[in-house]
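Z., the sequence and structure:
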Amino acid sequence: MQTMRSLWILAGVALSYVLGAALLGLQLHSMPAWFSQLASLEIVHVVAHSLLYGGLWLTAVRLGLGPRRAAAVVMGVAIAQELAQDLVFRRWPGFPELFDLCVDAGAMLLAASLKVMQGRSSMKALLQPE
């Protein structure tokens, strides 16, 4: 990571993911019916996780983290977000959380593939030790 500013940016984004998930869980019952129905669709859930966590990985890499460190940060945020939801819904982690974490990992792989396809780096460069 290049600067302290980058660290604060990344921490702010991570905190917004965790708090956003918790607040959404707390307010879901008071949302309009169409929003609750839309949010309950699995495809919407998968697309949202993919955009959030693939985007977070790209942001972390852009801010100066290497690909593997960025992946570790993203998975840490993803785990924290899942645990926050479990606390809000008063349940133990289970298969749905594991599924979400797999989607998040897949989103990072997709983001890395897109980065390679753009020609800004090679797969060999992404796999170099940090």
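Residues 4-127 form one domain. The chain has a mean pLDDT of 82.

Let me know what you think.
H.
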